[in-house]
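During the practical work, I selected for study one protein's amino acid sequence and its backbone structure tokens, as given directly below:
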Amino acid sequence: MSDQILGVIPARYASTRLPGKPLALIGTKPMIQWTYHHASLSKSIHRLVVATDDKRIHDTVIAFGGESVLTSPDHPTGTDRIIEVAEKFPNYGIILNIQGDEPGMEPNLIDGVLDLKTKHRDWEMTTAAVPFTVSEDPKDPNKVKVVFDRTGRANYFSRSPIPASFKGEATYHRHLGIYAYEREFLMNYNHLPTSDWETVESLEQLRALQNGSTIGVYLSDKANLGVDSPADLEVVIRDFKEKGLI
């Protein structure tokens, strides 16, 4: 069981709300470069690659000195793209999935997810969550909620507010799209039975949960915004300016 960690950043050009999103400029650098840069600051990742089906993204990554793998354009999900890349790097026992639209991803958050995974090799996956801020609406279906037990294992993920504020105000935690997988589990992921939870919620991680796998949750106190829309991109640009990054 190898303890080497492969970080993979899946990046698609075709985005419904923001086409060409990985190449959108934040200052003078494309978003994928910021994501790659911040992920490379992790103390835990041994190798970092971008997985893309688009030559424009691939060439951009190579040009700024990153490593990129061109993948099949026919993958239905990001996990399928991750699996294709993992097959090319057989010596890595833990595979980390970092979304390409997380230009401000904190290296310590990445390390937290990976530390939890390396301490629990019997857990098939680990991920991350943060408490909702006062400005965030738990009813927003685009902000995925997660509940987890006292040992840090996820009970459920939902687009609906969970737990329900039936008697008093509940504390909500927003799920972050970062996953660390045990290699063997990832390579067999597509052989898991289809999950009706996954279908109705449109949340891929529920396939693992409904089939009895364990997903550990690293709880962070804060997380920078990912980019799902042009409005998100403007917020990130303002945030980078305030931090003096651009």
About this structure: The radius of gyration is 17 Å.
